[in-house]
Amino acid sequence: MKNAIVGQSGGPTPVINASLAGVFQAAKQHGIDIVYGMNHGVMGLLKDDLVDIGQFLDSDLKIELLRRTPSSFLGSCRYKLKPYTEDDTEYKIIFENLEKHEIGYFFYIGGNDSMDTIAKLASYGAYVHSPIRFIGVPKTIDNDLAITDHCPGYGSAAKYVATVMKEIGRDAACYGTKVVTVVEVMGRNAGWLTAASALARRDDFEGTDLIALPEIPFDLDRFVDKVAELQAKKPAVLVAVSEGIKVADGRYVCELGSSSHASDAFGHKALTGTASYLCSVLQERLGGRGRPIELSVLQRCAGHLTSRTDIEEAEMVGGAAVLAAIAGKTGKTVVLRRISDNPYQVTTDLATCDELANYEKKVPLDWINEDNTDMTQAFLDYATPLIQGELAPFYVNGLPYHLGSFKE
Amino acid sequence: MKNAIVGQSGGPTPVINASLAGVFQAAKQHGIDIVYGMNHGVMGLLKDDLVDIGQFLDSDLKIELLRRTPSSFLGSCRYKLKPYTEDDTEYKIIFENLEKHEIGYFFYIGGNDSMDTIAKLASYGAYVHSPIRFIGVPKTIDNDLAITDHCPGYGSAAKYVATVMKEIGRDAACYGTKVVTVVEVMGRNAGWLTAASALARRDDFEGTDLIALPEIPFDLDRFVDKVAELQAKKPAVLVAVSEGIKVADGRYVCELGSSSHASDAFGHKALTGTASYLCSVLQERLGGRGRPIELSVLQRCAGHLTSRTDIEEAEMVGGAAVLAAIAGKTGKTVVLRRISDNPYQVTTDLATCDELANYEKKVPLDWINEDNTDMTQAFLDYATPLIQGELAPFYVNGLPYHLGSFKE
To answer: Is A170's CB within 8 Å of B403's CB?
Structure first.
């Protein structure tokens, strides 16, 4: 039987390694001898910088540790292949390296940019009549992948956001004084993660008072009025905004306050400072105190606070990818299909990578309330099952223990 | 037997409610009938805004829930009493209210500002020959209280800081690209919490590369050189700085970058933007990417990640305060005395509130390495026992459940 190779790409999540564990275990169980890992995704493959993952997962304990280790064990990258019709140089190198290591099955764990990579490699593979199977394994805290009901990584990030909103809210309210806390949550164009702040409302907590998603053009005057209205009723107002909210003319809110923002390899601008800008506007117009909080990378790397449902699904999609590849599928990605909300049941399916590549799934507008300030019950029904259950890290000497990077 | 009253003051911690539970349980066990709570500390007492805590802690489950609920259940305040020799108006109101409710025992859970309040009330009590006993219960994530070996609240905050440094470090390193992550940690004048970032170095993690405490004047040029030196060896450099670091001329580093910073009732300036300023300097001088991360209020309110040792000690000092009051002590605060590091053993003792009031205990300079960039083994021996053990929240429907504020 041919060997397998697996890579991780794009932003880390707390469960991307559970998918890696899923691929590894399913491959082994189905008779694949060597599972190679790419060091920093396709960038590593281009340099033939690979590792035999089995050497690092040589005990059940280590596999379990990998499941509970956040960020990308293999290292990640943001690397976009040009279409082979324009330039096939890199494709030739990649396929040479794959053949050299007798790879039959190629797995790539990533978001919509990574699905683009798989679609291109599968397409080139078909063009050169390669027998190698290319299968995508979805991951992104952003939950913006098409077709799949939701994306592994989102459940844990959503649980993190909802949990810390409860904690931040309690902290902010403790003095009984007037303060507007504006929490900035990741999400450029899709507000899934910010929407998760709505999950914080429970019988022990009043909840997030005001939520702004990038799906709705942001109206600064309305926002200030709404905060003033809320603060007339309660001193401590809790707001969640996506980093990517934009005003009607298309400018990011974070750009209104500052000047330059760098872009990455995919042309994405670095968005930061939205909460800080909004707090300065609130202080100027309403007086009182505004406290901006950026959840920053912790929302995508907090291995100490994960959803067990998410970890199990992340592992499941890894395993399903292996089955699909062995069954001869290629250019596909595993997706999750929800059977029912209550009881929550989900299964895997396959979609064509092309359908997911470079497309961002937005939050449905009818899941946002009429006022554009909160989520509806439909969203809560969708998201609540995804944050269920916990899987604590292995605490050693007081701190979570992780499976170290293989380069250490 | 007379009644008791308890208040919470100053910044919240994840374990300040464990001290409240400790006071309540010990009071009940020693025959005190009613335990009143002050709504927002002495501010509530001045307004006779009190609550019978027993009404809210009417089951063992609720007491256990209180132990696992972050932030101040009773509400907090930052309120400084004038010396009664200058103006005794407020003292008269306070003692009138205490007598009205037949209070014999007064407990105040707080930091050095709160110890000032207790010292003043005890002093006035002696002056008017009041039989009421005033005892302090220490809490602060800052760990800057004198005499006590360490302060309840610090262990959990230190565990939080060390844990997220490991997670942030893994996240930052995953691309293998050059990036300097500067994490800003709370601490105006004492670097205890920033020092806790040194705990992150374990056999599975390289650790925090560079640590800057307010105890050492900050040298910007040396800092940039040091980062450059580190980055020559590894692409992802991890830095922890106290929000309160100052340059040699006494200005806060965060003031170098921006203009105005508001002050609170105790004259403390709002410090924020240190990491952001340092990243902008690093980018300007060294190029590459700098990522500032402010841990913000989560380091003091993350009930989802606490030290069991800390929670148990927080409860213990609450209980010890009750015993001291019943034994007739007043104007004292409970302190922790360490018997040994290994095995870690600790007991309670009493100190005079005057000795702790308005004084900030700094990190000993010989616990900082010669280079002023890291902590020595002596610090690790001191801090490691404090982060041991976990006490998970009660997760309900996927989120930590809290004992709601009594006003809800």
So the answer is: no
| Identity of the amino acid at B233 | K
What are residue A63's phi and psi, to 5 degrees? -65, -40
A:B CB pairs within 8 Å: 181
Shortest CA distance from B390: residue in chain A: A398
pLDDT in tens, B9-32: 999 999 999 999 999 999 999 999
Which residues in B117-141 are b (16+ Cβ under 10 Å) and which e? Answer: bbbbbbbbbeeeebebbbbbbbbbb
| DSSP letter for each residue of B127-171 | HTT---EEEEEE--TT---SSSSS-TTHHHHHHHHHHHHHHHHHH
φ and ψ of A289, to 5 deg: -110, 140
pLDDT tens digit string along B148-177? 999 999 999 999 999 999 999 999 999 999
Nearest by CB: B77 against A175, A204, A402: A175
From A142, A209, A310, A354, active-site residue: A142
Residue with tokens 């300079």: B365
Kindly report the number of other CB atoms within 10 A of residue A359's CB atom: 14
Average pLDDT of chain B, as a whole number = 94
Smallest CA–CA distance, residue A87 to chain B, in Å, is 25
Angle (deg, nearest 10), helices B308-326 and B16-29: 40
Query: Is A142 in the active site?
Result: yes
Reduced to 3 states (helix: H, G, I; strand: E, B; else coil), residue B305 is coil
Across A312-338, average pLDDT: 98
pLDDT recorded at residue A37: 98
Are A297 and B291 inside 8 Å of each other by CB? Answer: yes
Interchain pair B163, A77: CB under 8 A: no
User: In this structure, how many other beta carbons lie within 10 angstroms of the beta carbon of residue A12?
Assistant: 28
Report CB contact under 8 Å: A202, B398.
no
Q: Which residues contact A25 (CB under 8 A, 6 or more apart)?
A: A63, A315, A318, A319
Q: Could you report the predicted ipTM of this complex, rounded to two decimals?
A: 0.96
